[in-house]
Design a protein that fits this description.
Number of domains: 2
Strand content: 15-25%
Distance between the termini: 39 Å
CATH topology of the largest domain: TIM Barrel
CATH superfamily of the largest domain: Metal-dependent hydrolases
Number of strands: 18
CATH architecture of the largest domain: Alpha-Beta Barrel
Helix content: 25-40%
Number of helices: 13
Structural class: alpha/beta
Length: 437
């Protein structure tokens, strides 16, 4: 008799702590999950007790700038403002072909790291909309293996840049998915507030999601997130709005934050922190004590706000490092936010998987019958171990098809009286007589 399933993955650990689980796949979707499933698959994959998870999701990225590091020059100060100025210098030199080539290379990296969904902001302040056209082309090309969601982002300010609003509307008409903004970069607080109102009203009229760079500043008086929450409630946009960065909250006084957090929760506004970038770009004017700059992740979570982590930048005018590894992002977020309790560390793993999937509104994401068979097998036994090791992606699967594999991280040793090989996992629960292979 023919095997009823296309693939069965055997003996997997799942992020919720279940172990020894089998996952049956048919027609690109998860058909069944349980221990020791009896039906066979035409393909059988032994997970060997390793962690099987839905793919990583990046809720905040700039794919139009990625891999452009050193063009036309290097950001010598490493600051946010020099990065913005440098991007302004680079924009006139951009070509659609180069934009597409760099973005596709980054998507290759993303797939190899198990990152199969990205929300990318794309600058609309260039009247040519070259980057918009390029990333719409990339979105079409990568659709079989990666979900790319685009945000129309008025990088130079909606009201500060004369053609930004018209260009944003053009970008949405061309097929860009989400309305973006940057209220703290407007000339005045009042214009920042006005930009939030204009953009939210436009999004509400079009039935679109909103994702604004909001209060990416060390200024505790940058409070546009309050306006964003207000407009979300006023316009009935609950569950469709995201405030990205929110770094000014790190510098706000506790009394004001105690009022602000319930407003964000009441409005159903999500938050995206970008640990790698927030920790390097913020606090630049401080000597010591020096502020960390990342928003109040534990407090937002405790208030019931949906929180995700984003990569933000990889080798661009703002950040010269990065490889598309969302476990590196979670690792930094865990440390900066001092989230080292067991529950908190698992929340950091969720901040690069399930939480951003909900923020992006991904359909069919998850580990349940009926979900897409988009899966990542990690060289780790648990979410916490995956973060600790930035674990190798042994297998990446899209719609039931394996699209990337990576060997386990194993070192060969030549040490007297010691094993010939070692991995980096502590297999003994008590930590004694551990088998490090």
């Amino acid at each position: 008799m023919d095997a009823p399933f296309d693939t069965v993955i055997r003996n997997a650990s799942l992020p919720d702590g279940r172990q020894g689980m089998d996952i049956a796949i048919a027609d690109g979707r998860i058909a069944a999950i349980g221990p020791a499933l009896a039906p066979r698959g035409r393909q059988e994959i032994d997970a060997g007790g390793d962690l099987l998870t839905p793919p990583f999701v990046d809720a905040h990225f700039h794919m139009d700038a990625t891999l452009s590091y050193g063009l036309p020059r290097v950001n010598e100060s490493g600051t946010l403002l020099e990065g913005i100025a440098l991007w302004g210098e680079l924009k006139p030199q951009l070509t659609q072909e180069a934009l597409v080539a760099r973005a596709l290379q980054y998507c290759d990296w993303a797939v190899a790291k198990g990152l199969l969904a990205i929300r990318s902001h794309v600058d609309v302040c260039d009247d040519r909309l070259l980057a918009v056209e390029a990333l719409l082309d990339v979105k079409r090309q990568v659709a079989p293996y990666l979900d790319l969601q685009l945000v129309a982002f008025p990088q130079d300010g909606l009201l500060r840049s004369p053609t930004a609003l018209a260009n944003l509307k053009r970008a949405i008409a061309m097929g860009v998915d989400v309305v973006g903004g940057i209220p703290h970069f407007e000339r005045t607080m009042a214009e920042g507030t006005e930009s939030v109102r204009i953009l939210c009203e436009f999004a509400a009229g079009k039935g679109l999601r909103v994702d604004m760079h909001c209060d990416e500043s060390d200024d505790p008086h940058s409070r546009h997130i309050e306006t964003l929450a207000y407009e979300t409630n006023r316009l009935g946009l609950q569950g469709r709005v995201t405030g990205s960065h929110l770094t000014s909250m790190h510098s706000m006084d506790n009394y004001y934050v105690s009022k602000l957090l319930p407003l964000i929760r009441e409005a159903g506004v999500a938050a995206v922190a970008n640990p790698l970038i927030n920790i390097t770009l913020q606090g630049r004017h401080d000597s010591y004590p020096k502020r960390r700059g990342m928003t109040r992740v534990p407090e937002l979570l405790a208030a019931g706000v949906e929180v995700a982590f984003g990569h933000d930048c990889v080798m661009d005018p703002w950040y010269s490092l990065g490889s598309g590894d969302m476990l590196e992002v979670a690792h930094m977020g865990l440390h900066v936010a001092q989230m080292t309790g067991q529950h908190a560390m698992r929340a950091c793993f969720e901040a690069v998987t399930a939480a951003p999937a909900r923020i992006l509104g991904l359909h069919g994401y998850g580990l349940a019958p009926g979900c897409h068979a988009d899966l990542v097998l990690l060289d780790a036994a648990s979410p916490v171990e995956a973060i600790r090791l930035r674990a190798a992606r042994r297998m990446v699967m899209r719609r039931g098809k394996v699209i990337s594999t990576t060997p386990r991280a194993t070192a060969t040793l030549d040490l007297p009286g010691r094993p010939a090989q070692t991995g980096f996992r502590l297999r003994s629960p008590a930590g004694l007589d551990a088998e490090n292979t």
